[in-house]
Amino acid sequence: MEAEYTSIRLAELVVGESASRFNFASLCDMHYYIFQDIYDWAGKIRIINIEKPEPALGGYFNRVF
């Protein structure tokens, strides 16, 4: 579900107006826009640590040799 919602929001950002400069507030605004449908804390400073067991997201995964 997260991938579906965020891909739509990211596509909207790409075709919309781009920010002329990035700062902490503008990045928080973009984070809120992308994740507003998924997380209550979207756009806010995270106060908890989260991990996902997916290599693409930097999580842990089992290697098979």
Descriptive overview:
- By secondary structure, the protein is an all-alpha fold.
- Helix content is 40%, strand content 0%.
- The protein contains 2 helices and no strands.
- The chain has helices at 2-15, 24-35.
- Helix 1 (2-15) packs across helix 2 (24-35).
- The longest helix is centred in the N-terminal third of the chain and has 14 residues, at 2-15.
- The protein is globular, with a radius of gyration of 14 Å.
- The mean pLDDT is 79.
**Treating each run of at least 4 consecutive H or I residues as one helix, how many helices?**
2
Spans where pLDDT lies below 50 across 5 or more residues: none
Distance between the termini: 31 Å
Proportion of residues in helical segments: 40-55%
| Shape verdict | globular
Short key terms for the protein model shown above:
mainly alpha; single chain; 65 residues
Topology:
Elements: H1 2-15, H2 24-35
Helix pairs in contact: 1-2
